[in-house]
Amino acid sequence: MTTVLVLADITPVDGPESALPARLCAAITLIDPPPPLAIVAHGQLAQLLPAIALAQRSAHRRTAEYLLVEPLLPPVTDTWPDAPVTVACDPTSDASLQGRLRGWTVIALDELPRWQPAD
């Protein structure tokens, strides 16, 4: 069973705003969710996914999928994404176009209630 981890629902550990990625990663470590994970990020939180993915790999928690909702898309690197990516957004948005160009699955926002995480 895939564990859905919604970044907006995680309270980062205390620290400076500039260390938000590390603070979120520390909070996830404290939660210790069982893998595989489906990590959901909305808006600007999607920018943190490369760092969060690295932390999950370091903790030996497999990520099955990333769901980006109306995202500010993160850069693609040699280590991210390490799992399939689904982008939920307006079909005419830049995120939709960029997601398709990257080979990611793009769904309309009204399809979001029917989204199921990958196993």
List keywords for this structure.
alpha/beta, 119 residues, 5 strands, single chain, 5-stranded parallel beta sheet, 3 helices
Secondary structure: elements and pairs:
Elements: E1 3-6, H1 20-31, E2 37-42, H2 49-58, E3 63-69, E4 85-89, H3 94-101, E5 105-108
Parallel strand pairs: 1-2, 2-3, 3-4, 4-5
Would you give an account of this structure?
The chain is α/β, with parallel strands linked by helices and 119 residues long. It has one domain. Helices cover 25% and strands 22% of the residues. It contains three helices and five strands. The protein has helices at residues 20-31, 49-58, 94-101; strands at 3-6, 37-42, 63-69, 85-89, 105-108. A five-stranded parallel β-sheet has the order 1-2-3-4-5, with helices on one face. α1 (20-31) runs parallel beside α2.
* Topology pattern, helix = H, strand = E: EHEHEEHE
Q: Largest sheet, described in full?
A: 5 strands, parallel
Q: End-to-end distance, in Å?
A: 7 Å
Return the structural class. Answer: alpha/beta
The portion of residues assigned to helices is: 25-40%
- Share of residues in strands: 15-25%
C-alpha geometry: globular
Query: How many β strands by DSSP?
Result: 5
The stretches of 5 or more residues where confidence is low (pLDDT under 50) are none
| Count of DSSP H/I helices | 3
The gist of it:
This protein has one domain.
